[in-house]
Design a protein that fits this description.
It is a single chain. The protein is of the alpha/beta class. It folds into two domains: about 170 residues, Rossmann fold (3-Layer(aba) Sandwich), CATH 3.40.50; about 170 residues, Dehydroquinate synthase-like, alpha domain (Up-down Bundle), CATH 1.20.1090. The chain is built from 13 helices and twelve strands. The strands form three sheets. Strands 1-2-9-6-5-3-4 form a seven-stranded mixed β-sheet, with helices on both faces. It has a three-stranded antiparallel β-sheet with strand order 10-11-12. The protein has a two-stranded antiparallel ribbon with strand order 7-8. β11 and β12 form a beta hairpin. The mean pLDDT is about 95. The structure holds glycine (GLY). The site of glycine has 6 residues, from loops. Its main location: cytoplasm. Pathway: Metabolic intermediate biosynthesis; chorismate biosynthesis; chorismate from D-erythrose 4-phosphate and phosphoenolpyruvate: step 2/7. One of its GO terms (cellular component) is cytoplasm.
């Protein structure tokens, strides 16, 4: 059944639509909100294989003039140096400021295409069609768009809200298992930070099949939590930081292994468990929370511990984290499952990683 969420950001407001089979009627949905002539579709080779022609044909059928740009998959594509090739294609296509870009893909395509949209001709509208679980529950919602520099990820970007987010859960049927798990870590995160019942509902599901039987509700719940937080703190100055639960340590672990050891979700999973262990020791988190997190991570075949030989490297990375303001590091901790807080500490908080 079709589900709709309104993201209330004044003049930058938009709808998130969640519906199985949405891609089959994309043109019908789009013609209610977009009255221009041209649409530029940005996607990657993996997604193009399954959904590129489907999306293009649906839009051509309605009478839009479309052009599709297919990029190599993977984080390397999200580089600042990819941008000129996108701008050139947009210029060749003669896309004007009144027209539209669609990003069809996971977080890389959404972030890169969204950043291109935010800068081309000082900003053209864009619509996100996220195709990975991670992008459907996180990166496509809330308007963070960015590219990577050689010195680090997401170092150039902006807050630029899409005109709509179209989520078709059916596309997850072709999502490889490792990307499914990657996304499930973020899904679990939402239960941890904001919704105890949701956490235990997720904990009760036994397989990917059971998750897929409930997927519209799961996506709705995650997008509802995310959009509510973003509405209260669009520019990430306060409450939005709660979405980073598990991420400070997670990012440091990703970096420790040169972004080749653990996926983002796996690293966040390890981060959520370890920070909760530590904050239980500190008496901030209710006893037993870390164990609950460990159990749910095991259910979803996600890791919860790492064997870090050089913990100083982790501490060094954390001290450079952009959440480190002055000497104060803001970390996200749980008081209990479903209740999170922003806690001021220093990178020494991470001295014990088990
Ligand atoms: N992914 C965290 C945020 O959008 O703020």
């Amino acid at each position: 059944m079709k589900k709709k969420l309104f993201v209330d950001l004044k003049e930058n407001s938009y709808n998130i639509l969640i519906e199985k089979g949405l891609l089959n009627k994309l043109g019908e949905e789009l013609k209610n909100i977009y009255f221009g002539e041209k649409i530029f579709i940005i996607t990657d080779e993996n997604v193009d294989k399954y959904y590129g022609s489907k999306v293009k044909d649906e839009l051509d059928k309605i009478g839009y003039k479309t052009r599709k740009m297919v990029l190599a998959p993977g984080e390397k594509t999200k580089s600042f140096s990819t941008l000129p090739s996108i701008y050139n294609e947009l210029l060749d296509f003669k896309l004007t400021r009144k027209e539209l870009i669609i990003t069809l893909g996971g977080g890389v395509i959404g972030d890169l295409g969204g950043f291109a949209a935010s800068t081309f001709l000082r900003g053209v509208s864009f619509i996100q069609i996220p195709t990975s679980l991670l992008a459907q529950v996180d990166s496509s919602v809330g308007g963070k768009v960015a590219v990577d520099l050689e010195k680090g990820k997401n170092l150039v970007g902006s807050f630029y809200q899409p005109k709509a987010v179209f989520i078709d859960p059916d596309v997850l049927n072709t999502l490889p298992e490792k990307f499914y798990k990657d996304g499930m870590a973020e899904v679990i995160k939402y239960g941890c930070i904001k919704d105890r019942d949701f956490f235990y509902m997720l904990k009760s599901l036994k397989s990917r099949e059971e998750v897929m039987n409930n997927i519209e509700d799961i996506l709705y719940k995650c997008c509802y939590i995310k959009k509510s937080v973003v509405e209260r703190d669009e520019k990430d100055l306060g409450e939005r930081m709660l979405l980073n639960f598990g991420h400070t340590l997670g990012h440091a672990i990703e970096k420790y292994y040169n972004f080749t050891g653990y996926s983002h979700g796996e690293a966040v999973a390890i981060g959520m468990y370890n920070i909760s262990l530590k904050s239980e020791d500190e008496g901030i988190t209710e006893k037993g929370v870390a164990e609950e997190i460990k159990e749910i991570l095991i259910n979803y075949d996600l890791p919860y511990k790492v064997d870090i030989k050089d913990n100083n490297k982790i501490i060094d990375t954390i001290s450079l984290d952009k959440k480190n303001i002055g000497n104060v590091l803001k970390v996200i901790l749980l008081k209990s499952i479903g209740e999170s807080i922003i806690y001021d500490t220093t990178s020494d908080f991470f001295k014990v990683v088990r």
